[in-house]
Amino acid sequence: MRTEARLExxxxxxxxALYESIRKRIVNGEIPQGEKLTEVRxxxxxxxxxxxxxxxxxxxxxxxxxxxxxxxxxxxPVLDEAEIRDLFFSRITIEKAAVSTLAATGQVPAEAARxxxxxxxxxxxxxFENQVEADIAFHTALVAAVGSRRLTRMHELIIGEVQLxxxxxxxxxxxxxxxxxxxxxxxxTSIEEGAPDAAAxxxxxxxxxxxxxxxxxLSGD
Amino acid sequence: MRTEARLExxxxxxxxALYESIRKRIVNGEIPQGEKLTEVRxxxxxxxxxxxxxxxxxxxxxxxxxxxxxxxxxxxPVLDEAEIRDLFFSRITIEKAAVSTLAATGQVPAEAARxxxxxxxxxxxxxFENQVEADIAFHTALVAAVGSRRLTRMHELIIGEVQLxxxxxxxxxxxxxxxxxxxxxxxxTSIEEGAPDAAAxxxxxxxxxxxxxxxxxLSGD
DNA sequence: CGTGCATTCTTGTCTAACAATTTGAGGATC
DNA sequence: GATCCTCAAATTGTTAGACAAGAATGCACG
Lengths: 221, 221
Fold this sequence. Notes:
2 copies of one chain form a homodimer. Chain A is mainly α. The first copy, chain A, has 2 domains: 14-75, Arc Repressor Mutant, subunit A; 81-219, Up-down Bundle (Four Helix Bundle (Hemerythrin (Met), subunit A)), CATH 1.20.120.530. Helix content of chain A is 69%, strand content 2%. The first copy, chain A, has 9 helices and 2 strands, in the order αβααβαααααα. Chain A has helices spanning 14-27, 39-46, 50-62, 81-105, 110-125, 128-145, 149-169, 179-192, 196-219, and strands at residues 36-37, 74-75. The longest helix of chain A is centred in the middle third of the chain and has 25 residues, at 81-105. The first copy, chain A, is globular and about 55 Å long. In chain A, 43% of the residues are buried. The mean pLDDT of chain A is 89. At the A-B interface, helix 3, helix 4 and helix 7 of A face helix 3, helix 4 and helix 7 of B. Chain B binds a DNA duplex through helix 3. Chains A, B: One of its GO terms (molecular function) is DNA-binding transcription factor activity. Chains A, B: This is GntR family transcriptional regulator. Chains A, B: Residues 12-79 form the HTH gntR-type domain. Chains A, B: Keywords: DNA-binding, Transcription, Transcription regulation. Chains A, B: InterPro entries: GntR_C, TF_FadR/GntR_C, Tscrpt_reg_HTH_GntR, WH-like_DNA-bd_sf, WH_DNA-bd_sf.
């Protein structure tokens, strides 16, 4: 691992920048499952003080991207089947509420529509990385469009782990390229038609499919 | 405010103890809405180092019990009507999922039943404080009984703010003493009968009532 | 080969200090 | 007298170094 990693100076806080950098490296799979992250190693690597590294680790732990208990080293978690099921159960709970609410107004969020287009392009060109990214953007946009700060925060608590598993298992490669796009389209259509129950069902189906792909990657490969 | 507050030595970590102590003082209303909490003041008051106080404040901020932005002092938030609606929308989302899941198994969680008994006693004896406490315990027990780590964590993210508003508006005093207990009983009955939709409806009704009491306290008083 | 102890690593907490930012008060100006 | 500006004070962000306490590891010994 290269010493002296660089930090983008975008965020105002140094802790923010460090947090973002590590977060990306984890969800990209650059830091693999089971990897241990000590405070001093990160501090020296990024050339920051240990308390700063500590703060970043604590925030990642709060989002489920790291596990750690008192006096023990933080580690990138390995999600087993039970935990992936739990993750998707929770995710479905949040996103169902989101699409139902959106359907009640009949307004298709513009941001989600944009992400949907990006997914279609990525699927056509077989750009898996982009497809994963746009997929996350799509679901995040749906939740954000509800305009509920707390629903959004709960979703953030979930979506990090989703990215983690996606990046590490690369389950999207198992999906027929256009399947995801079609399932998304069904959700958007139901929202546009003002059908909350249908939207919720399409969403649940879509996420159950995604969960199935992840689990089959996990066991059979 | 008294200097040199005492910390219970139960939790292993000093930060944990500090966090718990401040958290209780906030949800009890001992630290009122709008109160500013500076790092140095807490540090001197509790006789700990500033970084320790900082860590506790950050954890409280993550749970919504404090608001703060970069370089500004933390403040106990004042929830307006829109935010209370958002809070209950999010809360209903989580707890509906919880009771539906429990009803699917037909198992009434023992812990919730215990809390229900405690509420009935408190209502009979008009012990409002105990009633609030037992009410929170009841709802927390329902969610915990699902056994989903992530659902529980999302609920924790919500329930702190619920306690905050309950403690500060004391809305429970508006409820006829036995109303809450009856509404809870309806939820438990539906769970026992294995009726997910009915359980969800009873829960939504119950929480909408609670929200209504809070909002009327907020405007009319 | 297994167990127990000591070393070492890592985290928890503190003290002290400086930098960067926000806040508030006072003064100058209109 | 009101408003804006400037500057000082207060507060947070970050660093460095240090020590204590708990966890992990390896080695010696039975």
